[in-house]
Design brief:
The protein is of the alpha+beta class. The protein folds into two domains: 4-217, Cytochrome Bc1 Complex, Chain A, domain 1 (2-Layer Sandwich), CATH 3.30.830.10; 241-416, Metalloenzyme, LuxS/M16 peptidase-like (Cytochrome Bc1 Complex, Chain A, domain 1, 2-Layer Sandwich). The protein is built from 14 helices and eleven strands. It has helices at residues 50-58, 66-75, 100-115, 123-137, 141-154, 170-175, 178-188, 204-212, 271-292, 327-337, 342-356, 363-377, 383-391, 395-402, and strands at residues 9-12, 18-23, 29-36, 79-85, 90-97, 194-200, 241-245, 257-266, 300-305, 309-319, 410-416. The strands form two sheets. Strands 1-2-6-3-5-4 form a six-stranded mixed beta sheet, sandwiched between helices. Strands 7-11-8-10-9 form a five-stranded mixed beta sheet. A hairpin with a 5-residue loop joins strand 1 and strand 2. The radius of gyration is 23 Å and the shape is globular.
C-alpha cells in the first residue's frame, strides 16, 4: 500500500538547517513548508503572545513588501501562507510551480524573511490587529473568564496556566517591545531550529541545490529547541467543578444548557491508545445521550497532544434543559462502562487499522502532515509506524488510560440558563 510519509528523504545543510523532501515524479508543483521549532510555549513569563507577534510582523519586514510577496505567489498560480503560530511551533508555507527560477525567488524571499529580518516596521499597527483578533475570539468577557478558570484549574505549573490562546492576551501584547521581538526572533529563527518540508516534482538534491544558493545558507547562532519530556503523572485539577449561570451575564433568554469536562492524561502514554479510547467513548456517548435519551443533537470527546500531556475533553454545546440535573451522573456511568466494552474496543481498533492507509491526500496535505509530525516529535512518522502502534494497542491499555478520566481528575463546567 502507498505510504507517502515513508517516501521522505532528509538532509542537513552545513549550518544545521534540516530539509525533508518527498519526490512525486511528474507533478508540476511543489508544496513547501517552513517550520520553526518554537512557538507560544516558549514565550517568556509576562510576554505571552511574543511568538505570535513575531509571526505577524516578520512578513512585514522582509526584503520585499508583503503585498509584493503575495502578488508573486498568486501571479504564478500558487499560494502563500505567511504564518501560523501554535504552542510548539510557528510555520509558513507556499505552493508554486516546479520552475527553478520561481523556486529560487521564493527561497530568496523566505530566506531573508525567516533568517535576517529587522523587525522595525508596522509594529504598532500589528499590535492593534492582534488585540482585535483576541477580542474577536472573546467578544464577551465571561467567555474569557471561563477559559482562564479552566486553564488555571488544570494546568498549574505549565505554560498553559498563562495562556488561553497562543496569541497571548491584550495586556501582555501591549507590553511587548521592539527589542524583545527582535531578540526572540534572533534566538529562535535560526537554521538549526528550522525544518523545511517539500512535496512535489522536485527531488531532494534539486531542492538542496536551490537552497544552497539562497539566504537559507546563512550562518546564525542557535540550536534546536529540545523536545519536552512527557509527563508520567499529572496532578489533579485545583478545582473539579464550576456552574455558570448565563442569566447573570446576558439578558436574552437561553433555553438550553451545556456540558464540558476536561482531563489531562500523561504524555508518556501511546497516543494511539487515546485515539481508540476516544472513538469508543464517542460511540458510548452517542448511544446513551443522543439515541437513548434524546438530550442533545451532538455530544462527543476530543483529544489534543500538548506533548507534555494530552488534553481529553467531553463536549456538548447544546443540552436539553431536562438533562441538566442528570448529565453528570450519566457521563460517569458512560465512563465506567467503557472498561467492559471489549466489543467497542475491537470495533474501534479494526476501523482505525482499516482507515490507516485509506488516504487520498494532496501534496499540500502531506506537507502539512509532515509539518505536524515534526512539530510534535521532530520526525516524520510513516503510516506503517502508525499502523504498528495501533496494532499493539490492547484493551488493557485503554483501561489504564481510563483512570485519568475519574471525576477527581477532570474539570467540569455546567452551563445553566
Amino acid at each position: 500500500m502507498w505510504d507517502p510519509y515513508a517516501e521522505f528523504q532528509s538532509a542537513k545543510l552545513p549550518n544545521g538547517l534540516t530539509v525533508h523532501a518527498a519526490h512525486w515524479p511528474g507533478r508540476p508543483w511543489e508544496a513547501m513548508g517552513f517550520l520553526i521549532h518554537s512557538g507560544a510555549e516558549y514565550d517568556p513569563v509576562g510576554l505571552e503572545g511574543l511568538s505570535h507577534f513575531i509571526e505577524h510582523v516578520v512578513s512585514e519586514n522582509a526584503n520585499v513588501s508583503k503585498k509584493e510577496m503575495e502578488a508573486f505567489f498568486e501571479d504564478c498560480g500558487g499560494m502563500v501562507n505567511l504564518g501560523t503560530t501554535g504552542y510548539p511551533y510557528t510555520h509558513y508555507r507556499f505552493f508554486v510551480p516546479t520552475d527553478k527560477a520561481v523556486l529560487a525567488k521564493a527561497f530568496s524571499m523566505f530566506g531573508h524573511m525567516l533568517l535576517s529580518a529587522k523587525l522595525e516596521k508596522f509594529i504598532e499597527r500589528e499590535r492593534q490587529v492582534i488585540i482585535a483578533e483576541f477580542h474577536r475570539h472573546y467578544p464577551v468577557k465571561f467567555k474569557l473568564d471561563l477559559d482562564v478558570r479552566e486553564h488555571k484549574a488544570l494546568y498549574t505549573g505549565y505554560w498553559l496556566e498563562r495562556f488561553v490562546r497562543p496569541l497571548g492576551n491584550p495586556e501582555s501584547v501591549t507590553r511587548i517591545t521592539q527589542s524583545e521581538l527582535q531578540s526572540h526572533y534572533d534566538a529562535h529563527y535560526t537554521p538549526a531550529n528550522m525544518s523545511i518540508v517539500g512535496v512535489g516534482g522536485m527531488q531532494l538534491p534539486e531542492l538542496i541545490e536551490l537552497l544552497s544558493e539562497s539566504p537559507f545558507t546563512a550562518q546564525k547562532k542557535g540550536g534546536r529547541t529540545p523536545l519536552p519530556t512527557p509527563a508520567t503523572d499529572v496532578a489533579p485539577p485545583s478545582e473539579t467543578r464550576h456552574v455558570f449561570e448565563v442569566s447573570k451575564h446576558l439578558t436574552m433568554p437561553i433555553e438550553v444548557c451545556a456540558y464540558r469536562s476536561v482531563a489531562k492524561i500523561p504524555g508518556n502514554i501511546n497516543g494511539r491508545v487515546i485515539r481508540i479510547m476516544k472513538e469508543m467513548f464517542n460511540e458510548v456517548l452517542f448511544e446513551e445521550v443522543r439515541e437513548r435519551r434524546a438530550w442533545a443533537y451532538a455530544i462527543d470527546s476530543s483529544r489534543y497532544n500538548f506533548r507534555h500531556f494530552y488534553e481529553f475533553s467531553i463536549n456538548c454545546g447544546a443540552l436539553a434543559l431536562k438533562a441538566i440535573d442528570d448529565i453528570e451522573e450519566v457521563i460517569e456511568v458512560c465512563i465506567a462502562s467503557m472498561a467492559d466494552r471489549e466489543d467497542l474496543f475491537e470495533q474501534a481498533k479494526r476501523r482505525a487499522l482499516a482507515s490507516n492507509f485509506m488516504t487520498d491526500p494532496t501534496g499540500k496535505g502531506i506537507c502539512d502532515g509532515a509539518l505536524n509530525d515534526l512539530a510534535e516529535d521532530q520526525r516524520i512518522m510513516s503510516l506503517k509506524e502508525l499502523g504498528d502502534d495501533l496494532e499493539h494497542v490492547t484493551m488493557s491499555d485503554v483501561r489504564g488510560a481510563l483512570q485519568w478520566l475519574r471525576p477527581d481528575r477532570r474539570w467540569t463546567l455546567i452551563t445553566r440558563p
